[in-house]
Write a structure and sequence with these properties.
The protein is globular. It has a seven-stranded antiparallel beta sheet. A four-stranded antiparallel beta sheet has the order 5-10-7-8, with no helix packed on it. With 260 residues, the protein is an alpha+beta fold. α3 packs across α4. The chain is built from six helices and eleven strands. Helices cover 28% and strands 23% of the residues.
């Protein structure tokens, strides 16, 4: 946490079958025509679907908010497909509930918020320059307290080291990636690092698969909460407005809606 802001966890109690099921059902939704998906897009009343070219031309996502993940998923699914999708809604409910429990355990261990699940889809461009990296999602930090990510076997997630080098965070079966967000960075007075990261588009080993799907669960404080560092982590150089300055610098941009 202090050096990189990223770590893997295992024995988290979330089955591979649930990952596979939610990935498959999500791919079905993402394969729908754009005109259907945009019924839940930025100019709709729901604003749960982020289309291509908002954060990146190769990135799209569907936001499912807690605490009632099933109801939120049902509203979005019905909007984009014009019919109920109980299997997708139930899978999202189970995954969201498990992520909320896991997030609480991790934050209790690290320091001590409601969260939301963002289902991300990264598509390879039709024309690519061989040997040149293409960013599916550019460099950013997460504004969450914690982010817990399931990434499929395609990979592409990279973290930026303190000396500016990009390092791969390769997926391995049975693990989840956890990264520290801006809130926890601020709350710990910088002792826990919120690292810059990005997603590089890669081709899957299976030639029939051309897109990367990740499930990013963002664990956040309520919007009305004021964050300040506890006395235990505040040093002599602490400034009372450090948290406010931190988030004035970040601002509210498309990165609010970005995933990994």
């Amino acid at each position: 946490c202090k050096e990189w802001g990223f770590f893997h966890i295992i024995n988290h109690g979330i089955s591979k079958d649930l990952y596979s099921k939610l990935r498959s059902l999500s791919c079905q939704l993402f394969s729908l025509p754009d005109e259907l998906k945009l019924k839940a897009g930025p100019v709709s009343n729901m604003k749960t679907y982020t289309p291509h070219f908002i954060a990146s031309p190769f990135f799209e996502s569907l936001r499912v908010s807690g605490p009632d993940f099933r109801a939120s998923a049902q509203s979005s699914a019905e909007a984009v497909s014009n019919q109920p999708n109980s299997e997708f809604c139930e899978a999202v409910r189970e995954y969201g509930d498990k992520m909320r429990i896991l997030s609480k355990k991790i934050t209790q261990i690290l320091l001590i918020c409601e969260g939301y699940l963002r289902i991300n889809n990264y598509s390879l461009p039709e024309k690519r320059v061989k040997g040149k990296d293409v960013e599916g999602l550019g460099m950013h930090t997460d504004m969450s307290c914690l982010t817990i990510v399931y990434q499929d076997d395609i990979g592409g997630l990279q973290v930026r080291s303190k000396d500016g080098k990009w390092l791969n965070i390769d997926p391995f079966e049975g693990s989840l990636v956890v990264n520290i967000g801006d809130l926890l960075h601020a709350w710990s007075n910088g002792k826990l690092r919120s690292s810059e990261h990005r997603v590089i588009l890669k081709e899957g080993k299976n030639q029939n698969r051309s897109s990367r799907v990740s499930l990013a669960f963002f664990w956040c404080f309520e919007d009305s909460k004021v964050v300040s560092a506890p006395n235990e982590v505040v040093g002599d150089e602490f400034r009372e407005n450090s948290v406010r300055g931190k988030f004035e610098k970040v601002g509210f941009t498309v990165k609010d809606f970005a995933g990994i």
